[in-house]
């Protein structure tokens, strides 16, 4: 017997009973979720620390419940699959959207961020209505089995490779999906800018969460001259943030797993190390690193880095940078640094990406008024703020007519005599609607 | 490389040239499309007559006029919709620019269908062009006259490389679906919808699927039955029932079933005369296969009107069935023909339950003078869209999105929704390199004691 089957049936029955419809129910669930976060702050911080060395889980989200002539209705049973890099945020922020839209939700946390998984499985259910909510645990095999079932929406955050698997599984049931994936987020640095300011900003966002952020600047594109100025500035920023011995800094986390560590350690061999380059397997520590002289064909320029390594690729100007970017898959984020607004808007106009930030790293994520999502290989769909609510709702077009005024309809009925055709042409030319 | 691959490759090169980006390119293309429709109207009507026995009226007022309206609306609104949309800023980003920037996706594939072969192929295309994409059109091979006409006429008016038309059957479509697109827009059956989405998943291509289902039509005891039946008959039998949002079946109390039948018959006579086969305004079934399929649904049923057909002309008489058993085939698949089953239910709750046990339909209809009945029906069911006290018309309002939910589809279009469907709405934040000291607080090392904010 499939244990998941029972759980899903229970949730569907609860949904069909109409339990999640009233605004009061949803507001109560959201409030309870808030309490979960407040009551268990220490527990969550410890779990996040154990999983990845993160000190602060920051999240602020807004919800709106709308009523419209386009009726926004819950979809039914929603599956949210979260990754390991921001295991709490990337599970709960979509959850908020799904709950406020009135759905029943199944959560599938990542098995890699084990401590957070444990808290979500054991503590969170105490705060949410058990008839409308469930946590399912497991690895790739269990997730595959889970995906064989029918859901009314699947929200997935993770790699493009697994995104394809999720979408193919969803296709069997015609389940719509939002896929928040990734890519290599380019960071173009123009000659016309202050290298220290750029270095501060790029380094901050690159090494945040030890580089394990889907929207982190993945690589820098700049001229050889700018590179000369940037390297000491990057070293300076890294020292400022993490001290002379980053391994002992409380502000630098660790790599999530042995597997990821080994992958990243391998990337350290690409090009030439200009800053950092140290690693310690016993600690899953990788130093904040800058690589130069990298070739496009090397692994560090072929896969999303997802670690504290920043390669610099040389280009001879804006055109070459734009060509380089456009030869590759559309990234989740794209960054351009320049004192010249024209340069920044040119990069924007001539490329595509999920989102764009001029002269900073992923600050755009802090605006809930901006939708967050990818395009092309970096994903489909979006969320945050009102976009979350809309994502997890069906927008049902409703038209309520009255039984009267049937005379007006007369023109639309057969038989379509010549007289009627003429009358209709006339009425249309008067901008009356036929129907 | 196959011919299909070449065509797609050329479209991609055309898109990459960047010429669709300025509105000064897109607007003239839309105007050319409009001119094409106006100048070649007779050809389009001819194709629709040959494929589906449509006439000037039904061709124009049930298909073409909506496309013209969409083009006009799109041309008028495009400058506004294509502009950057500023968004609300946070305290820390007050001095920055923050907006949503709409961009084309790239190369869009639009797969049309055969029942409104002009409208359902071209109306989505309007949105795709407006959003700045290259568009590969694949008309349905079942409506072969329209498919052939589109392939001839579109290149005469529009940018040939940017908007190619590819024709063919299942093998060509399968090959086409192996190519990589930036969006696939498909109108058709649930079964093929799954195939399209599966193919799209290989390339992580987003899809809009306009599918179908059995759109229920609940007729309350408290309503003007004359008006209700007239409207239902119009929507059901238009295009010989081959409309994705046609009322598929009626749910009503047994006490009004006979009245409904009588009034439907009355309206049918008014619309199509005593013998619909002789009416200029009554359509034909698209193919022998579909003719057989629909005739098969009538077998074994209690026929109170019609029930006959002529294979040679693919004519099926307007048919009404009563006391229909929900287990029978006519209640298992989308009818897509001029056969109207009536299923009896004893209450609104039973009707709601009946609907809830089935896949979510593309449309749902409820006829009642009682607002509470309408509200309850809408609140306790789901469907792509709803019209209360009429049928079909919700899809003609261009400020309402047209699309399904569950098995009836995903995504939507029409009007602004079309523009959004075929665009990437890119979040943008543009800051300056000044005021770096304001950033001090965010950089490590973090203070010994964490301050709340």
From TrEMBL, chain A:
A family per Pfam: Aldedh
InterPro entries membership: Ald_DH/histidinol_DH, Ald_DH_C, Ald_DH_CS_CYS, Ald_DH_CS_GLU, Ald_DH_N, Aldehyde_DH_dom, Aldehyde_DH_NAD(P)
Record-annotated Aldehyde dehydrogenase domain positions: 67-394
Active site: 180, 214
Single GO molecular function: aldehyde dehydrogenase (NAD+) activity
Gene3D superfamilies: Aldehyde Dehydrogenase, Chain A, domain 1 (3.40.605.10), Aldehyde Dehydrogenase, Chain A, domain 2 (3.40.309.10)
UniProt keyword list: NAD, Oxidoreductase
GO biological process, one term: aldehyde metabolic process
Record protein name field: Aldehyde dehydrogenase
Species of origin: Tupaia chinensis (Chinese tree shrew)
Lineage: Eukaryota, Metazoa, Chordata, Craniata, Vertebrata
């Amino acid at each position: 017997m499939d244990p998941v089957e029972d759980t899903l049936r229970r949730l569907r029955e609860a949904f069909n009973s109409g339990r999640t419809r009233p605004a009061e129910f949803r507001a109560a669930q959201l409030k309870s979720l808030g309490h979960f976060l407040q009551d268990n702050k220490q527990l969550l911080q410890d779990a996040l620390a154990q999983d990845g060395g993160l000190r602060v889980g920051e999240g602020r989200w807004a919800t709106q419940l709308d009523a419209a002539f386009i009726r926004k209705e819950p979809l039914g049973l929603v599956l949210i699959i979260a990754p390991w890099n921001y295991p709490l945020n990337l599970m709960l922020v979509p959850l908020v959207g799904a709950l406020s839209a009135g759905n029943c939700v199944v959560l599938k946390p990542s098995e890699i961020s084990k401590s957070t998984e444990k808290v979500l499985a054991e503590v969170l259910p105490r705060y949410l209505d058990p008839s409308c909510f469930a946590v399912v645990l497991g690895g790739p095999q269990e997730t595959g089995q889970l995906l064989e079932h029918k859901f009314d929406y699947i929200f997935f955050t993770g790699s493009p490779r697994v995104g394809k698997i999720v979408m193919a599984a969803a296709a069997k049931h015609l389940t719509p999906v939002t896929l928040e994936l990734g890519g290599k987020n380019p960071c173009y640095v123009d000659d016309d800018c202050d290298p220290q300011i750029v270095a501060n900003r790029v380094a901050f966002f690159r090494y945040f969460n030890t580089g394990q952020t889907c929207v982190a600047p993945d690589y820098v594109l700049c001229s050889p001259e700018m590179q000369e100025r940037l390297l000491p500035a990057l070293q300076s920023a890294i020292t400022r943030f993490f001290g002379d011995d980053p391994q002992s800094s409380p502000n630098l986390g660790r790599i999530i797993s042995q597997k990821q560590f080994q992958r990243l350690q391998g990337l350290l061999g690409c090009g030439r190390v200009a800053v950092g380059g140290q690693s310690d397997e016993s600690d899953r520590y990788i130093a904040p690193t800058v690589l130069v002289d990298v070739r496009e064909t090397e692994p560090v320029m072929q896969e999303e880095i997802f670690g504290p390594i920043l390669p610099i690729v040389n280009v001879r100007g804006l055109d070459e940078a734009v060509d380089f970017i456009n030869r590759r898959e559309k990234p989740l984020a794209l960054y351009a640094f320049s004192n010249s607004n024209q340069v920044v808007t040119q990069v924007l106009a001539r490329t595509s990406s999920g989102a764009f930030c001029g002269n900073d790293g992923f600050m755009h994520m802090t605006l809930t008024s901006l939708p967050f999502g990818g395009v092309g290989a970096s994903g489909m769909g979006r969320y945050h703020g009102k976009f979350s609510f809309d994502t997890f709702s069906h927008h049902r077009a409703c038209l309520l007519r009255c039984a009267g005024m049937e005379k007006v309809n007369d023109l639309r009925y057969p038989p379509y005599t010549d007289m009627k055709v003429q009358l209709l042409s006339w009425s249309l030319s008067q901008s009356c609607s036929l129907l | 490389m196959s011919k299909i691959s070449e065509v797609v490759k050329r479209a991609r090169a055309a898109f990459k040239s960047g010429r669709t980006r300025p509105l000064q390119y897109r607007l003239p293309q839309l105007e050319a499309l409009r001119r094409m429709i106006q100048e070649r109207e007779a050809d389009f009507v001819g194709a629709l007559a040959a494929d589906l026995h449509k006439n000037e009226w039904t061709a124009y007022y049930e298909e073409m006029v909506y496309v013209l309206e969409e083009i006009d609306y799109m041309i008028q609104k495009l400058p506004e919709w294509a502009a950057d949309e500023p968004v609300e800023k946070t305290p820390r980003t007050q001095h920055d620019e923050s907006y949503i920037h709409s961009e084309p996706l790239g190369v869009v594939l639009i797969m049309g269908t055969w029942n409104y072969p002009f409208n359902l192929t071209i109306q989505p295309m309007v949105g795709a062009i407006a959003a700045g994409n290259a568009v590969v059109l694949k008309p349905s091979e079942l409506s072969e006259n329209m498919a052939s006409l589109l392939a001839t006429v579109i290149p005469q008016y529009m940018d040939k490389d940017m908007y190619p038309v590819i024709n063919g059957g299942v093998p060509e479509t399968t090959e086409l679906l192996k190519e990589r697109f930036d969006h696939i827009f498909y109108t058709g059956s649930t079964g093929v919808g799954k195939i399209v989405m599966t193919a799209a998943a290989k390339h992580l291509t987003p899809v809009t699927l306009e599918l179908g289902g059995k759109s229920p039509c609940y007729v309350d005891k408290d309503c003007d039955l004359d008006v209700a039946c007239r409207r239902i008959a119009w929507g059901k039998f238009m295009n010989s029932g081959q409309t994705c949002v046609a009322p598929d079946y009626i749910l009503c109390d047994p006490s009004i079933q006979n009245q409904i039948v009588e009034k439907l018959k009355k309206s049918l006579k008014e619309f199509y005369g005593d013998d619909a086969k002789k009416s200029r305004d009554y359509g034909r079934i698209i193919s022998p296969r579909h003719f057989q399929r629909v005739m098969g649904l009538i077998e074994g049923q209690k026929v109170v009107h019609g029930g006959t057909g002529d294979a040679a002309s693919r004519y099926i008489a307007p048919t009404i069935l009563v006391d229909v058993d929900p287990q029978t085939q006519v209640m298992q698949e989308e009818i897509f023909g001029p056969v109207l089953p009536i299923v009896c239910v004893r209450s609104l709750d039973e009707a709601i339950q009946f609907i809830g046990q089935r896949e979510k339909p593309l449309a749902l209809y409820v006829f009642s003078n009682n607002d509470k009945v309408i509200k309850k029906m809408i609140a306790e069911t789901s469907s792509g869209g709803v019209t209360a006290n009429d049928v079909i018309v919700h899809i003609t309002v261009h400020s309402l999105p047209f699309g399904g939910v569950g098995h009836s589809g995903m995504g939507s279009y029409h009007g602004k929704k079309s523009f959004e469907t075929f665009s990437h709405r890119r979040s943008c934040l543009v800051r300056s390199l000044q005021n770096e000291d304001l950033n001090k607080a965010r950089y490590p090392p973090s203070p010994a004691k964490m301050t709340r904010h």
